[in-house]
Amino acid sequence: MPLPAPPVRRRQTTWRLLGAIALSAVLGLAFWGYLSPEMSVHWENLAALCGF
Questions:
Q1: What are the start-end ranges of the E strands in 1-51?
Q2: Burial (CB count within 10 angstroms: exposed 0-12, middle 13-18, buried 19+), residue 28
Q3: How confident is the prediction along the chain (52 residues), in pLDDT tens digits per residue?
Q4: Whole-prediction pTM value?
């Protein structure tokens, strides 16, 4: 008698939750870095990167 497979729905929900936590952590670290004076974005540099 084969063992039952774990529900696909639960596995998808787990991966989606882990992805949301990872995305929140990356965005939180990026925002925290933006608050430091050395890492602030200057609009002139951003425009130069975009070719304007």
A1: none
A2: exposed
A3: 666 666 667 778 899 999 999 999 988 887 777 777 776 667 777 677 777 6
A4: 0.52
